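Figure S7 source data.
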Amino acid sequence: MINSDNPINIPRLNQIVFQNSNVLPVHRKHMVALSIKDLTVQYQSQKKKVCAVDHVSFSYKENESIGIAGESGCGKSTLGLAIMKTLQENASVVGEILLGDKSILSMSDAEFTKDIRWKQISMVFQGAMNSLDPVFTIKKQFEEILKKHSFEGNYKQTIESTILSVGLTHSVLDKYPHEISGGMKQRVVIAMALVLKPKMVIADEPTTALDVLVQAQIMILLKKLKKEGLSIMLISHDLGIISEIAEKVGIMYAGQIVEFGNMQDIYRNPKHPYTIALLDSIPKLGETKKITPLKGNPPSLVNPPSGCRFYDRCPQAMEKCKKEPPKIKTESGFVMCWLHE
Ligand code: SF4
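C-alpha coordinates for the predicted iron/sulfur cluster complex:
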Protein backbone atom coordinates (compact mmCIF):
# COMPACT_ATOMS: atom_id res chain seq x y z
CA MET A 1 0.00 0.00 0.00
CA ILE A 2 1.21 3.50 -0.76
CA ASN A 3 1.96 5.62 2.25
CA SER A 4 0.64 9.11 1.53
CA ASP A 5 3.59 10.65 3.37
CA ASN A 6 6.05 8.60 1.43
CA PRO A 7 4.68 7.30 -1.86
CA ILE A 8 7.95 5.60 -2.66
CA ASN A 9 8.54 2.81 -0.20
CA ILE A 10 12.09 3.65 0.76
CA PRO A 11 13.50 1.10 3.16
CA ARG A 12 16.46 3.05 4.37
CA LEU A 13 14.45 5.97 5.69
CA ASN A 14 11.04 4.84 6.74
CA GLN A 15 12.21 1.71 8.50
CA ILE A 16 14.40 3.57 10.93
CA VAL A 17 13.28 4.89 14.28
CA PHE A 18 15.06 7.97 15.48
CA GLN A 19 14.35 9.68 18.75
CA ASN A 20 15.98 12.73 20.15
CA SER A 21 14.55 14.27 23.26
CA ASN A 22 16.77 17.32 22.91
CA VAL A 23 14.90 18.60 19.87
CA LEU A 24 12.95 21.72 20.77
CA PRO A 25 10.47 23.55 18.57
CA VAL A 26 11.55 26.76 16.89
CA HIS A 27 8.75 29.22 16.33
CA ARG A 28 8.71 31.02 13.03
CA LYS A 29 6.92 33.94 11.49
CA HIS A 30 4.51 33.28 8.63
CA MET A 31 5.95 31.46 5.68
CA VAL A 32 6.01 33.00 2.27
CA ALA A 33 5.39 31.83 -1.27
CA LEU A 34 8.12 31.71 -3.90
CA SER A 35 7.47 32.26 -7.55
CA ILE A 36 10.02 31.91 -10.35
CA LYS A 37 9.18 33.21 -13.80
CA ASP A 38 11.14 32.53 -16.95
CA LEU A 39 14.46 32.40 -15.09
CA THR A 40 17.58 31.99 -17.20
CA VAL A 41 21.12 31.81 -15.79
CA GLN A 42 24.15 31.82 -18.07
CA TYR A 43 27.82 31.51 -17.16
CA GLN A 44 30.34 33.19 -19.42
CA SER A 45 33.52 31.14 -19.55
CA GLN A 46 36.25 32.43 -21.87
CA LYS A 47 34.55 32.32 -25.28
CA LYS A 48 31.69 30.06 -24.27
CA LYS A 49 28.32 30.71 -22.70
CA VAL A 50 26.89 27.92 -20.55
CA CYS A 51 23.14 28.12 -20.07
CA ALA A 52 22.77 26.35 -16.72
CA VAL A 53 19.13 27.35 -16.11
CA ASP A 54 16.96 27.84 -19.16
CA HIS A 55 13.58 29.62 -18.94
CA VAL A 56 12.56 27.95 -15.69
CA SER A 57 9.14 28.84 -14.24
CA PHE A 58 7.32 27.42 -11.24
CA SER A 59 5.81 28.54 -7.98
CA TYR A 60 4.73 27.16 -4.69
CA LYS A 61 2.50 28.45 -1.97
CA GLU A 62 2.94 29.20 1.69
CA ASN A 63 3.14 26.06 3.80
CA GLU A 64 4.56 24.04 0.92
CA SER A 65 7.98 22.54 0.40
CA ILE A 66 9.47 21.70 -2.94
CA GLY A 67 11.98 19.21 -4.29
CA ILE A 68 14.16 19.86 -7.32
CA ALA A 69 15.44 16.59 -8.75
CA GLY A 70 17.82 15.74 -11.55
CA GLU A 71 21.26 14.46 -12.45
CA SER A 72 24.50 16.25 -11.58
CA GLY A 73 25.06 19.26 -13.81
CA CYS A 74 21.36 19.75 -14.67
CA GLY A 75 21.33 23.24 -13.14
CA LYS A 76 19.56 22.56 -9.85
CA SER A 77 22.31 24.01 -7.63
CA THR A 78 22.56 27.07 -9.90
CA LEU A 79 18.82 27.58 -9.41
CA GLY A 80 19.33 27.59 -5.61
CA LEU A 81 22.28 29.97 -5.86
CA ALA A 82 20.28 32.31 -8.11
CA ILE A 83 17.52 32.51 -5.49
CA MET A 84 20.17 33.33 -2.87
CA LYS A 85 21.84 35.89 -5.19
CA THR A 86 25.10 34.03 -4.57
CA LEU A 87 26.13 33.23 -8.14
CA GLN A 88 29.67 33.67 -9.37
CA GLU A 89 30.58 36.97 -10.99
CA ASN A 90 30.58 35.49 -14.48
CA ALA A 91 26.89 34.59 -14.22
CA SER A 92 24.09 36.61 -15.76
CA VAL A 93 20.49 36.21 -14.63
CA VAL A 94 17.28 37.23 -16.36
CA GLY A 95 13.69 36.54 -15.39
CA GLU A 96 11.86 37.03 -12.14
CA ILE A 97 12.16 35.59 -8.63
CA LEU A 98 9.39 36.74 -6.30
CA LEU A 99 9.41 36.10 -2.58
CA GLY A 100 5.86 36.98 -1.63
CA ASP A 101 5.47 40.22 -3.58
CA LYS A 102 9.14 41.22 -3.38
CA SER A 103 11.27 40.90 -6.49
CA ILE A 104 14.59 39.43 -5.42
CA LEU A 105 16.38 40.15 -8.69
CA SER A 106 15.53 43.84 -8.70
CA MET A 107 16.94 44.32 -5.19
CA SER A 108 20.46 45.61 -4.71
CA ASP A 109 22.89 43.23 -3.06
CA ALA A 110 23.00 45.43 0.04
CA GLU A 111 19.20 45.43 0.29
CA PHE A 112 19.06 41.66 -0.18
CA THR A 113 21.68 41.09 2.52
CA LYS A 114 19.95 43.47 4.91
CA ASP A 115 16.39 42.14 4.54
CA ILE A 116 16.36 38.70 2.94
CA ARG A 117 19.61 36.68 3.02
CA TRP A 118 19.68 34.42 6.09
CA LYS A 119 16.74 36.36 7.64
CA GLN A 120 14.05 35.18 5.23
CA ILE A 121 15.84 32.64 3.03
CA SER A 122 18.99 30.76 3.86
CA MET A 123 20.84 27.91 2.25
CA VAL A 124 22.62 24.76 3.33
CA PHE A 125 25.21 24.63 0.57
CA GLN A 126 26.30 21.38 -1.02
CA GLY A 127 29.21 19.92 0.98
CA ALA A 128 28.90 22.75 3.53
CA MET A 129 29.85 20.50 6.42
CA ASN A 130 33.32 20.18 4.90
CA SER A 131 33.74 23.93 4.77
CA LEU A 132 33.49 24.52 8.52
CA ASP A 133 36.61 26.41 9.53
CA PRO A 134 38.95 23.91 11.25
CA VAL A 135 40.68 26.51 13.44
CA PHE A 136 37.59 27.96 15.12
CA THR A 137 35.13 26.38 17.54
CA ILE A 138 31.56 25.87 16.41
CA LYS A 139 30.45 28.66 18.75
CA LYS A 140 32.91 31.12 17.21
CA GLN A 141 31.60 30.27 13.74
CA PHE A 142 28.01 30.91 14.84
CA GLU A 143 29.07 34.25 16.34
CA GLU A 144 30.69 35.22 13.04
CA ILE A 145 27.40 34.63 11.19
CA LEU A 146 25.46 36.73 13.70
CA LYS A 147 28.04 39.52 13.51
CA LYS A 148 28.06 39.45 9.72
CA HIS A 149 24.28 39.91 9.68
CA SER A 150 24.39 42.67 12.34
CA PHE A 151 22.30 40.62 14.77
CA GLU A 152 21.31 42.70 17.75
CA GLY A 153 19.77 40.09 20.08
CA ASN A 154 21.30 37.83 22.69
CA TYR A 155 24.06 35.81 20.98
CA LYS A 156 24.38 33.09 23.63
CA GLN A 157 20.66 32.41 23.91
CA THR A 158 20.13 32.44 20.14
CA ILE A 159 23.02 30.08 19.40
CA GLU A 160 22.11 27.67 22.18
CA SER A 161 18.41 27.47 21.24
CA THR A 162 19.30 26.93 17.57
CA ILE A 163 21.74 24.15 18.37
CA LEU A 164 19.08 22.45 20.53
CA SER A 165 16.54 22.77 17.71
CA VAL A 166 18.65 20.50 15.49
CA GLY A 167 19.00 17.85 18.17
CA LEU A 168 22.50 18.71 19.40
CA THR A 169 23.57 19.66 22.91
CA HIS A 170 25.36 22.83 24.01
CA SER A 171 28.60 20.88 24.50
CA VAL A 172 29.09 20.81 20.71
CA LEU A 173 29.60 24.58 20.70
CA ASP A 174 33.03 24.36 22.35
CA LYS A 175 34.28 21.75 19.92
CA TYR A 176 36.33 22.16 16.74
CA PRO A 177 34.91 20.64 13.55
CA HIS A 178 37.37 17.70 13.61
CA GLU A 179 36.07 16.70 17.04
CA ILE A 180 32.53 15.94 15.85
CA SER A 181 31.07 13.32 13.47
CA GLY A 182 29.84 13.93 9.91
CA GLY A 183 26.21 13.75 11.03
CA MET A 184 26.83 16.31 13.78
CA LYS A 185 28.64 18.61 11.33
CA GLN A 186 25.67 18.44 8.97
CA ARG A 187 23.32 19.35 11.86
CA VAL A 188 25.66 22.23 12.71
CA VAL A 189 25.49 23.64 9.16
CA ILE A 190 21.69 23.23 9.16
CA ALA A 191 21.61 25.08 12.51
CA MET A 192 23.78 27.84 11.00
CA ALA A 193 21.22 28.24 8.22
CA LEU A 194 18.47 28.50 10.85
CA VAL A 195 20.13 30.82 13.32
CA LEU A 196 18.33 33.94 12.08
CA LYS A 197 15.00 32.09 11.86
CA PRO A 198 14.41 32.27 8.11
CA LYS A 199 11.05 31.28 6.65
CA MET A 200 12.63 29.20 3.94
CA VAL A 201 15.78 27.10 3.65
CA ILE A 202 17.28 25.81 0.43
CA ALA A 203 19.01 22.52 1.24
CA ASP A 204 21.37 21.41 -1.53
CA GLU A 205 22.07 17.66 -1.31
CA PRO A 206 21.93 17.74 2.51
CA THR A 207 22.31 13.98 2.87
CA THR A 208 25.00 13.27 0.28
CA ALA A 209 28.15 11.64 1.67
CA LEU A 210 26.38 10.60 4.88
CA ASP A 211 25.74 6.98 5.79
CA VAL A 212 22.13 5.77 5.60
CA LEU A 213 21.41 6.01 9.32
CA VAL A 214 22.67 9.58 9.48
CA GLN A 215 20.75 10.36 6.25
CA ALA A 216 17.61 9.16 7.99
CA GLN A 217 18.32 11.33 11.02
CA ILE A 218 18.87 14.41 8.85
CA MET A 219 15.64 13.76 6.94
CA ILE A 220 13.71 13.35 10.20
CA LEU A 221 15.23 16.62 11.38
CA LEU A 222 14.17 18.40 8.16
CA LYS A 223 10.65 17.00 8.51
CA LYS A 224 10.47 18.24 12.10
CA LEU A 225 11.62 21.72 11.00
CA LYS A 226 9.02 21.67 8.25
CA LYS A 227 6.28 20.79 10.75
CA GLU A 228 7.37 23.76 12.81
CA GLY A 229 6.73 26.04 9.85
CA LEU A 230 9.93 26.07 7.82
CA SER A 231 9.48 25.97 4.05
CA ILE A 232 12.17 23.79 2.47
CA MET A 233 13.49 23.67 -1.07
CA LEU A 234 15.26 20.34 -1.22
CA ILE A 235 17.72 19.93 -4.07
CA SER A 236 18.70 16.33 -4.66
CA HIS A 237 19.46 13.74 -7.30
CA ASP A 238 17.49 11.29 -5.13
CA LEU A 239 13.72 11.32 -5.70
CA GLY A 240 13.31 8.97 -2.75
CA ILE A 241 14.71 11.60 -0.38
CA ILE A 242 12.53 14.29 -1.97
CA SER A 243 9.40 12.17 -1.51
CA GLU A 244 9.98 12.37 2.25
CA ILE A 245 9.57 16.14 2.38
CA ALA A 246 8.10 17.87 -0.63
CA GLU A 247 4.54 18.64 -1.66
CA LYS A 248 5.73 19.90 -5.05
CA VAL A 249 8.44 18.45 -7.29
CA GLY A 250 10.29 19.89 -10.27
CA ILE A 251 12.24 17.49 -12.46
CA MET A 252 15.22 19.22 -14.05
CA TYR A 253 17.01 18.03 -17.14
CA ALA A 254 19.75 19.90 -19.00
CA GLY A 255 18.83 23.26 -17.48
CA GLN A 256 15.07 22.97 -17.95
CA ILE A 257 12.22 21.89 -15.68
CA VAL A 258 10.73 19.11 -17.81
CA GLU A 259 7.97 18.14 -15.38
CA PHE A 260 6.46 19.93 -12.42
CA GLY A 261 3.54 19.18 -10.15
CA ASN A 262 2.29 17.81 -6.86
CA MET A 263 4.51 15.11 -5.46
CA GLN A 264 1.64 12.59 -5.29
CA ASP A 265 0.68 13.16 -8.95
CA ILE A 266 4.23 12.87 -10.21
CA TYR A 267 5.06 9.76 -8.20
CA ARG A 268 1.82 7.99 -8.98
CA ASN A 269 1.56 9.05 -12.60
CA PRO A 270 4.88 10.33 -13.97
CA LYS A 271 4.51 11.66 -17.49
CA HIS A 272 7.92 12.65 -18.81
CA PRO A 273 10.09 9.69 -19.86
CA TYR A 274 12.98 11.17 -17.85
CA THR A 275 10.84 11.29 -14.67
CA ILE A 276 9.85 7.67 -15.31
CA ALA A 277 13.52 6.71 -15.69
CA LEU A 278 14.44 8.53 -12.46
CA LEU A 279 11.67 6.74 -10.56
CA ASP A 280 12.65 3.40 -12.06
CA SER A 281 16.17 3.87 -10.75
CA ILE A 282 15.01 3.74 -7.11
CA PRO A 283 15.19 0.32 -5.47
CA LYS A 284 11.92 -0.58 -3.73
CA LEU A 285 11.25 -2.93 -0.84
CA GLY A 286 10.29 -6.43 -1.90
CA GLU A 287 10.80 -5.75 -5.61
CA THR A 288 12.93 -8.21 -7.55
CA LYS A 289 12.80 -6.28 -10.85
CA LYS A 290 16.25 -5.46 -12.20
CA ILE A 291 17.03 -1.75 -12.17
CA THR A 292 17.64 -0.49 -15.69
CA PRO A 293 20.11 2.39 -15.83
CA LEU A 294 19.43 5.21 -18.22
CA LYS A 295 21.95 5.05 -21.04
CA GLY A 296 23.89 8.01 -22.38
CA ASN A 297 24.65 11.43 -20.96
CA PRO A 298 22.82 14.75 -20.84
CA PRO A 299 23.68 17.17 -23.68
CA SER A 300 26.25 19.91 -23.32
CA LEU A 301 24.81 23.15 -21.97
CA VAL A 302 27.21 25.17 -24.12
CA ASN A 303 25.28 24.51 -27.30
CA PRO A 304 22.25 22.50 -26.27
CA PRO A 305 20.48 20.79 -29.17
CA SER A 306 17.29 22.29 -30.54
CA GLY A 307 14.19 20.23 -29.91
CA CYS A 308 13.79 17.97 -26.90
CA ARG A 309 17.01 17.79 -24.90
CA PHE A 310 16.20 14.24 -23.81
CA TYR A 311 15.89 13.08 -27.42
CA ASP A 312 19.13 11.03 -27.57
CA ARG A 313 18.25 9.05 -24.44
CA CYS A 314 14.50 8.80 -24.74
CA PRO A 315 13.06 5.34 -25.47
CA GLN A 316 9.96 6.96 -26.96
CA ALA A 317 11.61 9.60 -29.13
CA MET A 318 9.76 10.44 -32.35
CA GLU A 319 10.57 12.54 -35.39
CA LYS A 320 8.64 15.54 -34.09
CA CYS A 321 10.70 15.50 -30.87
CA LYS A 322 13.41 17.24 -32.90
CA LYS A 323 11.26 20.34 -32.44
CA GLU A 324 11.04 22.14 -29.07
CA PRO A 325 8.44 20.21 -27.02
CA PRO A 326 5.33 22.09 -25.90
CA LYS A 327 4.60 22.79 -22.26
CA ILE A 328 1.47 20.74 -21.55
CA LYS A 329 -0.72 21.44 -18.54
CA THR A 330 -1.17 18.46 -16.19
CA GLU A 331 -3.38 17.83 -13.09
CA SER A 332 -1.16 19.98 -10.89
CA GLY A 333 1.60 21.40 -13.06
CA PHE A 334 3.09 20.80 -16.48
CA VAL A 335 5.17 18.46 -18.59
CA MET A 336 7.39 19.33 -21.55
CA CYS A 337 6.93 16.41 -23.89
CA TRP A 338 5.35 15.73 -27.29
CA LEU A 339 3.79 12.50 -25.97
CA HIS A 340 1.23 14.51 -24.03
CA GLU A 341 0.20 17.17 -26.54
FE1 SF4 B 1 10.98 11.70 -25.44
FE2 SF4 B 1 9.97 13.17 -27.39
FE3 SF4 B 1 8.98 13.44 -24.95
FE4 SF4 B 1 11.42 14.31 -25.53
S1 SF4 B 1 9.49 15.09 -26.37
S2 SF4 B 1 10.84 13.15 -23.76
S3 SF4 B 1 12.12 12.77 -26.98
S4 SF4 B 1 8.89 11.60 -26.25
